Inverse folding.
């Protein structure tokens, strides 16, 4: 494996970026050379032996930069170990987690060629006061699941670092171990 890892992320309001930074920091602490970049700024994967991809879920869909990235780099990603994560639920309960996980599984099913070595969903951050249009309008509608939901930041940094450790172990072993096929 080429020894450099790319952590590529998409983020609207910064919470996924901060998770990507924590994952990159953990991988570096474990001795890997790591670059971190927004997906939309990535121009080549040639120098990377492995890729970690992270993006939030919005209205059931993964951030569009993640879709574009997967389509653009499908050949290069097929040849490398790839770990993927999403930020999703704004409440840390089983029903919300399960709903978001189902949304994420549906997203990943659109890319059958992608066989990640690790897949994870993290609880996200939500601050209605910081939303821009059209998110502010959408969440103000009584029909929105986020209508009236208070601000929260339930990102579990211990779980996030533990997942980065798991990714590190998998990459160190350097073999494909598709979670979806287990
Ligand atoms: C308008 C809106 C729609 C959302 N839709 C979903 C959703 O369908 N599923 C989900 O799991 N999370 C959803 N979320 C929660 C976000 O994924 C979560 O807030 C995440 O931490 C945002 O990441 P970011 O700060 O990197 O943009 C939504 C949030 C907003 C504001």
């Amino acid at each position: 494996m080429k020894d450099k890892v790319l952590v590529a992320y998409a983020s609207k309001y910064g919470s996924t970026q901060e998770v990507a930074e924590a994952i990159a920091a953990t991988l570096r602490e474990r001795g890997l050379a790591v670059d971190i970049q927004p997906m939309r700024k990535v121009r080549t994967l040639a120098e990377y032996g492995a890729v970690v991809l992270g993006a939030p879920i919005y209205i059931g869909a993964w951030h569009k930069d993640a879709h574009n990235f997967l389509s653009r780099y499908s050949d290069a990603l097929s040849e490398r170990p790839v770990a993927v994560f999403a930020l999703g639920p704004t409440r840390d309960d089983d029903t919300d987690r399960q709903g978001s996980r189902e949304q994420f599984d549906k997203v990943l099913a659109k890319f059958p060629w992608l066989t990640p070595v690790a897949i994870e969903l993290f609880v996200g951050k939500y601050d209605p006061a910081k939303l821009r249009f059209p998110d502010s309008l959408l969440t103000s509608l009584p029909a929105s699941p986020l209508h009236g939901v208070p601000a929260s930041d339930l990102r579990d940094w211990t779980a996030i670092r533990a997942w980065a450790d798991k990714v590190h172990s998998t990459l160190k072993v350097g073999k494909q171990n598709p979670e979806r096929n287990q």
